[in-house]
Amino acid sequence: MDSTDRIERRARVRYEATRVRRALIGFAPVLLVVAIAGLVAKRPSATVAFGIAMFSVGVVLLWYGRDLKRAVLPGVAAGLVPLVLVLCANHVRHVCMGDNCMTVCIPACTVGGIVAGLAVASVGVRHRSGPSFWFAVSAVALLTGAMGCASVGYAGIAGLALGFGAGMVPGLVRKFLADRPA
Amino acid sequence: MNGAVAWQTPGSVASPGSAEMDTNQDTTLDALVARLADGDRSAFTLVFKILWSPTLRLCMSMLKHEADAADAAQQAMEKIFARASDYDRARPAMPWALAIAAWECRTIARKRHRRREASKDTAADPSFDGAEDELVQRDLTRAALEALGQLSESDRETLVATFWDEAASVSGATLRKRRERALDRLRGAFRRLYGLD
Questions:
Q1: How many domains does the structure of chain B reveal?
Q2: B135 falls within a domain
Q3: Which of A56, A68, A87, A85 is nearest to A138 (CA)?
Q4: Backbone angles phi, psi at A100, to 5 degrees
Q5: B55, B77 Cβ separation under 8 angstroms
Q6: Which residue in A129, B100, B130, B196 is deepest, having the highest Cβ count within 10 Å?
């Protein structure tokens, strides 16, 4: 008869393997989003690279479970805002107002980032979650948004990050005030 | 919560408060398995320790063979933990785990039976397989009855009438449809109760 420790180890391996499989299957539909973004984007390689990174992070979070698991869906949903905005903006290129014309890609990244940041912050405040949740949901949202902004270049990603940070500020302030002892 | 569990050992004598203690332990186990389902690995060892003895005892009582029981218990524990992430918090954890273990024992008993038939070694102890089959059969019957108990009166009536080949109040396509639906619901109830088809 195997020792109990060995049986426990084998049970643990099965437990983890099943969790990995479930995470992969559960997050697989996101690959469809990555594929569509890759087809629509101007620089598909960068989009797909960020998509793979986002998928990997999502799978790890789902595999780990607990609070982090709950960060995946809000993160993807929030990140879809800048992604869709930028992919649409990519095809508009610029907007003219009178004599002045401006490209809309970088503003789309920033505005999308702000909306995503606001959404993420509102979810974080409502769930009364810890820093790990905030970090996880932000990572997923930023990576999802970056799939679109990557086709604009570094400036697009910087715009997304700045917008996202700005969008998070009100939520972080509310959380700070709520957590502060009376 | 850690360390709060002292599962009853196989030889321990039931005290007047043991029923209440068992209920508390079941509740603790439910909470621990729910934590494990959520990904809380700190509950793993404790759940393993709580489940190992009852699982091994169940396998011993079903298979009556130490080595087979140990194999079955080991495989059952692997399956229990593989399915831990699917654990339904609405159900008590101990019967859920033991149902998986019972299924594993049944599988091993079947394999053993086939192996013995293949090697034509059954003559050595002809009464043993019969008793074992009877135990397995009794276990399955109990499980099926419990699942049947979850169905509506009309579903039960339809299935019992089908089983005994009795004439029902309806016939033909209606009866066939009703029987199909009742069987689907029975399968669903069995799956809900034991996580198995």
A1: 1
A2: no
A3: A68
A4: -95, 130
A5: yes
A6: B100
Answer whether A18 sits within 8 Å of B40, measured CB to CB: no
3-class DSSP state of B118: helix
Phi/psi of residue A3, each to 5°? -70, 155
Taking residues A57-84, report their average pLDDT. 93
ipTM of predicted complex: 0.76
Q: Tokens 């107002």 — which residue?
A: A97
Contact B99, B87 (CB under 8 A): no
**pLDDT the model gives residue A99:** 67
Query: Given CB atoms, is B11 within the 8 Å cutoff of chain A?
Result: no
Which among B159, B151, B161 has a CA at the least distance from the CA of B179? B159
- φ, ψ (nearest 5 deg) of residue B11: -95, 5
- Residue-range definition of the domain harbouring residue B112: 19-125
pTM for the whole structure: 0.68
CB contact under 8 A, B78 and A14: yes
A67 touches chain B (CB under 8 A): no
Domain membership of residue B85 (yes or no) is: yes
At B3 the pLDDT is: 38
Tokens linked to B101? 């273990």
Query: What is the mean pLDDT of each successive set of 10 residues along chain B, which is 197 residues long?
Result: 38 46 72 92 92 92 88 93 90 90 90 76 54 72 76 77 60 77 83 68
B97 is a domain residue: yes
Rank A1-10, A97-106, A132-141 by mean pLDDT and report only the highest.
A132-141
